[in-house]
Amino acid sequence: MVPTVASIVTISLFCWLSLIGLTKSGANNLHMYDGIRTHDIIAGDVFFEILDPPELEYTYRLRPAKDFGGSFGTTYKATSGKLVPAIPADACSTRFENAEQLVGNIALVERGDCSFLTKAINVESVGGAAVIITEIDAESDDYDYYIEMVHDSTDRDTDIPAAFLLGKNGLIIRRTLTKLKQPYAVVNIPVNLTFVQPHEINQPPWLQW
């Protein structure tokens, strides 16, 4: 039996909707159907690995800022960089208690109280090389989602890369470093996963597949 044009269109639409459902099925879902590459699902996002401490040795996903800042891989990259939790964590001023530790490193910052751009500018002003922003309020509606960070419509800008980290990851990284009394995590960023199968990605065990 020769398929009709209508049946072909229906099948094509079903496949297309299935792919959309796959990519939107969860903030952390990297599963795929046979024939769909990891690159097709994660295009645009950035990944990094924590190399130390051992308790955090996993691969983490970031959502880069949409329309401000530099980019990981060109503006900043490191095979043994330092991810330093900023103090105070909101980065809404340049009065960091650990400003010296932020110089040349990546600041881990909490969302809230000021714009994403303001946080990046403040980190850059003390010599920070990049900023990762996260939602650590487990009661927030955005805790389990990636936030699209956009410019705040001022006449300011920043040259350092900025990206958003899933809330649960950010919270556990902060808590673990605090528990270990370790001021930073050693990271490799960015990690190229273009040709890595989704099931081979070393995601944190606390994320739902």
From TrEMBL:
Query: PA domain location, by residue?
Result: 80-171
State the signal peptide span. 1-27
UniProt name for this protein: Putative protease-associated domain protein
Q: Which PANTHER family match?
A: PROTEASE-ASSOCIATED DOMAIN-CONTAINING PROTEIN, PROTEASE-ASSOCIATED DOMAIN-CONTAINING PROTEIN 1
Provide this UniProt record's keywords sorted from A to Z: Glycoprotein, Hydrolase, Protease, Signal
What is the protein's species of origin?
Anopheles triannulatus
One of the protein's GO biological processes: proteolysis
Under the GO molecular function aspect, what terms does this record hold?
Answer: peptidase activity
